[in-house]
Amino acid sequence: MEVERVQAIASLPLDAIPSEFIRSEHEQPGTTTFHGPIPEVPVIDISDPDRSRVVQTITEAAIEWGFFQVVNHDIPEKVIQELQRVGKEFFELPQEEKEAVSMVPGSGSFEGYGTKLQKELEGKKAWVDFLFHNVWPSSRVNYRFWPKNPPSYKKANEEYTKHLLGVVDHMLSSLSIGLGLDGHVLKDGLGGEALELLMKINYYPPCPRPDLALGVVAHTDMSAITILVPNEVPGLQVFKDDHWFDVKYVPNALVIHIGDQLQILSNGRYKSVWHRTTVNKEKARMSWPVFCSPPGDMVVGPLPQFVTEENPAKYKAKMYKDYEYCKINKLPQ
Ligand SMILES: O=C(O)CCC(=O)C(=O)O
Ligand SMILES: [Fe+2]
């Protein structure tokens, strides 16, 4: 069955949107976005030579928000610009060229170009197309799902991944130390060097009714941690204290989400953040999240250091692939 891409729908001369994209009232961003004074979402300068201060701010942000942005992270601007350039060029290719790397339904793999991953409640659709492919470790990379066009796509993604690995290590060791553990403990609990990085590109075409539609609907990431670069079009919102807050676009920042696996490992000390995205009337929004997750057969459960008689395990220990299956199919964990 041919899947209709949102980008193709958006290219039609529409002044309304098809009804399946109109979210139910309790989800519509036009009425559910908070408009009062916005609390400061943490923006953390990780080049601060006072390493213990950096660890402390990261830890506090991960406990309080499950979310923060980092600046001065050492990934050269040029490397990020290239990642964005090649991704944008891919999405601007004619539709049939993009379909060359489309997802294979029923293959059990996430990889490829696609339009909808999860069955949504109330049969509603999300205003977004995407591309997924593994970038790390190299044994998990399948170039069949990497665009051949533009030709520099591969190099740009490999270069970004190489730099990103350093940031992943920095984040996981800071989050470990911040909970009083040795720096390597959280990464070890996620498979150590077998930790997997999955690149996603979200492409949110301009939308005639951004007040009624959503890009990605409210969710927490099932990864351990997600590191994202957005383009300059704002749209990310995070949920805190019962409100949806707009996240401000900070040039050259990396956006960090705590995902479900860190919530589980830390037995709830860290929170996986609820987030969603809005879309824009005139401009295409794009984002490049990289999901960092344990390998599928790794059993993840609360670390013994966080389980006591007064504070028993809040989550079951299970293989990551089983967690993923339940999450995608909306089954209880
Ligand atoms: O586009 C964004 O900023 C967020 C996307 C997201 O949350 C996701 O793809 O899981
Ligand atoms: Fe997400």
Automatic annotation (TrEMBL):
Swiss-Prot/TrEMBL keywords: Dioxygenase, Flavonoid biosynthesis, Iron, Metal-binding, Oxidoreductase, Vitamin C
PROSITE patterns noted in UniProt: FE2OG_OXY
Biological processes annotated in GO: flavonoid biosynthetic process; pigment biosynthetic process
Residue ranges occupied by any Fe2OG dioxygenase domain in the UniProt entry: 193-294
Domain of life: Eukaryota
GO MF annotations in UniProt: dioxygenase activity; L-ascorbic acid binding; metal ion binding
Pfam families, sorted: 2OG-FeII_Oxy, DIOX_N
Cofactor entry: L-ascorbate
Family affiliation: Belongs to the iron/ascorbate-dependent oxidoreductase family.
Protein name per its UniProtKB record: Flavonol synthase
Species of origin: Tricyrtis sp. Shinonome
